[in-house]
Amino acid sequence: MLVNQNGEGVSTVTKWSTTEEVPAGVGVDDPSGRPGPVVPGDPEGVAALTGREREVLGLVGVAAGNRGIAQALGIAERTVKAHLTNIMGKIGVSSRLEAAVFAYAYHDLISVPQGGGIALEGNARTSNSA
């Protein structure tokens, strides 16, 4: 559990005044050296992911739905679901939302396929091409 300057337990991370207040490994540091928000999962788990799992996780990190991921990668939706189950176990998260936050925070560790103008159906992001 995180504690604030007064030693009280907190459920959300607020602005920290020094890095000593945040336990090591709790968040992802930003370039300014300030501790960032708490990120779910274990970044060391990325090493255990297959190439395809990295592609799926990268697309989850940009808010792609299962149908859009399946179409972009040329696989079945059921296969996407199986990959997500495996991914979540390997990186130590318990929900798709946590997996998306993890992918966003650790995008530099994950190989993300180039969209090439592919519209990811069932997703907020789509191609502008006609």
UniProtKB/TrEMBL annotation:
Q: Which UniProt keywords apply?
A: DNA-binding, Transcription, Transcription regulation
Judging by the UniProt lineage, the source's domain of life is Bacteria
Q: Where is the composition biased (Low complexity)?
A: 25-42
Q: InterPro entries annotated for this entry? A: Sig_transdc_resp-reg_C-effctor, Tscrpt_reg_LuxR_C, WH-like_DNA-bd_sf
Give positions of region: Disordered.
22-42
What sequence ranges are listed for the domain HTH luxR-type? 42-107
PANTHER family documented for this protein: DNA-BINDING TRANSCRIPTIONAL ACTIVATOR DEVR_DOSR (PTHR44688)
- In Swiss-Prot or TrEMBL terms, this protein is called Helix-turn-helix transcriptional regulator
